[in-house]
Design a protein that fits this description.
The protein is built from 5 helices and no strands.
Length: about 110
């Protein structure tokens, strides 16, 4: 959609958070794509956990990049958002890596 493209280009080019904007395609496409080309990487729980975490961080950075210039959020709000979203993610990843919660139903 042309309207969305202009919006994204303005955010990326004119934003003081330009370095974060460069990280978004790396976190959401380049690193996961190149890593998951290998069959061994796709079958490793550890690699998949790292890639899933990387994609989550990339999506979070993308949302912050779009929201911060408009909302004028302070650091406390950002830290609370990271804790609120990151806490459950860390718990789920820890449970998945430990093998708990992945049991087959009887």
């Amino acid at each position: 959609i042309p309207e969305e493209q202009l919006f994204l280009v303005r955010r990326i080019v004119d934003s003081p958070l330009r370095q974060l904007a460069i990280c978004i395609p790396l976190f959401l496409f380049v690193i996961p794509f190149t890593t998951l080309l290998s069959r061994a990487a796709k079958s490793s729980n550890t690699v998949m956990t790292v890639i899933a975490s990387l994609v989550f961080v990339g999506v979070f950075i993308e949302r912050l990049l779009f929201i911060i210039p408009v909302a004028h959020m302070n650091a406390i709000v950002v830290v609370l958002a990271v804790v609120a979203l990151g806490g459950p993610l860390v718990y789920m990843l820890r449970e998945g890596v430990n093998g708990e919660g992945t049991e087959e139903p009887a």
